[in-house]
Each structure stands twice: as C-alpha cells, then as structure tokens.
Specification:
The protein is mainly beta. The protein has one domain. The protein is built from one helix and nine strands, in the order βαββββββββ. Strands 1, 5, 6, 7, 8 and 9 form a six-stranded mixed beta sheet that branches. Strands 3-2-4 form a three-stranded antiparallel beta sheet. The two termini are about 20 Å apart.
Length: about 150
C-alpha cells in the first residue's frame, strides 16, 4: 500500500490530455486494479517464474499460458530518460519541458516500465538514479508516475 507521501494531489497531465485506459480484452485489468489500490503489479509466469511487462497472454520465455501477477515494491532505477521539449499533444503545448523515464524494477526481474518523472523538469537525472512510484488518482484510473526519493 502507498503512504500518503506517495500520492500526488495534482494532475501531472493537463486538462484535455487523454488518460490511458485498460485494454478492452481485460488482459491488463489486474494491473489497473492494482494501481487503484496503490499496489504495483507486474505479470509473472507461474510455470517458470519469469517477470514480464507489458502483460501478455503467454510467458515470453517458456510459452506457458499459466501467467499471474506479483506485487513489487515500487522502487526502481532510471534505465533511460528523455527531457521532452516539443509537445506531442496540443494539451501539452505550454507544459514543456517534462521528463519521461524508463524505470527498471530490480525486484520484478528488472522489467522496465515507462512513466513521467515528477519534480523540476530541469533536474539533474542520471542513469541508475533511484526512483519510487507515485500514484496519480483520477476518477476512472490511477496512473503510475515516478519521483526521486525525498522529493
């Protein structure tokens, strides 16, 4: 469960920006149910133990269809990042720069998850920096964002 310090009360995404939504086939429903409960879940094969993200109907290692979900700590490391200066959507026209990061999750087989890195968009970021999950609650979905510990 998240502590109060891991919940952002401000929307990082501006008004007019479409929010992600669960897939109609239900494949990622456990992930989104986990985010609503402020729990970070990653798909894991019940046959061979391999973690994978995004979710798939079968294990990408052993091809078993016996896949489930495992909770991870929500702590990771910056694997890559991009400081975005050019808006990719009209709602972001006045929001640049902003930071997008690819986070590696050591306690989930080093799978990687994309999100925004909160805080000063000009902050000094390095590959390998520690980050932690931050929950951004909306009416229909909770988004996974990231921040450096102590921010």
């Amino acid at each position: 469960m998240a502590s109060e310090s891991n919940i952002t009360t401000e929307s990082y995404l501006p008004e007019g920006m479409p929010l992600p939504a669960p897939m109609p086939d239900g494949l990622d429903a456990p992930f989104w149910e986990g985010t609503r409960a402020h729990t970070l879940l990653v798909q894991r094969c019940n046959a061979c133990g391999t973690f994978q993200f995004g979710p798939e109907w079968i294990c990408h290692k052993c091809r078993s269809s016996d896949v489930g979900w495992a909770q991870c700590s929500g702590r990771g490391k910056v694997y890559a990042f991009e400081r975005v200066w050019h808006p990719v959507h009209k709602a972001l026209r006045d929001k640049g720069p902003y930071l997008i990061t690819l986070v590696e999750l050591p306690d989930a087989g080093n799978v990687r998850m994309v999100g925004n890195l909160l805080g000063d968009p000009q902050q000094d970021v390095k590959i390998g920096d520690d980050v932690e999950v931050v929950w951004e609650d909306h009416q229909d979905v909770t988004l996974v964002q990231w921040r450096r510990p102590g921010q």
